[in-house]
Design brief:
- The protein contains seven helices and eight strands.
- By secondary structure, it is of the alpha+beta class.
- The chain has a four-stranded mixed sheet with strand order 1-4-2-3. Strands 5-6 form a two-stranded antiparallel sheet. A two-stranded antiparallel ribbon has the order 7-8.
- Strand 7 and strand 8 form a beta hairpin.
- Helix 1 packs across helix 2.
- The chain is elongated and about 75 Å long.
Amino acid sequence: MSAAPAHIPESLVPLAVPIDDLVVYHRNPRTGDVDAIANSLRANGQYKAIVVNRGTHTGRPNEILAGNHTWTAAQQLGWEQIAATWVDVPDEDAARIAVVENRTSDLAGYDSELLADILEELPDLDGTGYDQTALDKLLDSRALPATIDLPSDGQGTGAMAKLEHLQWGYLQWSTTRVQITAAEVETLNGIYERFLAESRTDLGFGWHLLQEAHTETAEAPG
C-alpha cells in the first residue's frame, strides 16, 4: 500500500485501506448530501473512520455499514485510501448498525443560538455544511430580548412604564451580525431614505455609510 495521503490524520493511518476494496451497504435507507460531505472532507480531511463489515456471515465482503456517503464523497474526490474500522456480524446485526447510525443523527438536536455563535466566530464557513443563507436563518432564530418593567413614570398614572430594552435591528457584514437599538434603526432608516432619494438606487449605500460622517439623530416617533 502506498503512503497514506495528507487527508488521513496520523491517528487514523493504521486504519487506512484501499477505497476500491469496499462496497456500499446493499440496503442503505439513508439519502445524504454527498457534495456537502465532499466539501467537509476537502476542508477537514477524514476525522473519523467509517465502519465496514467483513462479511463472513453475510456473504457480502467489505460492506460499509456506517459512512456510505463519506465513502462516496471520498471516491468523488479521487481518494485512493480511507480509514475504516471492522466488524464481522450477521445480516440482522448489520441492519441494526446501519439503521441506528442514521437514527441517532435524526434524534439529535441543536442549541441554535450556541451554534450560531460558533459559526459566527469562524473565519469562513468552508467545511461546516453551512452557507450564509443557513447561518442567516440561525441568526434570525435568536430570541428577542425580554421587555423590562420600569417604575411608575411619575406622571400619576399609577401604571408601570414599559420600555422595550432593544427594539430590534441588525447590522450585518459577512458572518458578523451586530444588534442595534431602535434609535439607531431610525437614524439608519433616515440616512438610507435620503441616500435613495438622491441616488435613486441603493448601490453604494454601504460605502456611503463608511465614508460620510453622519451626526444626525432620528426624530422620536409621533
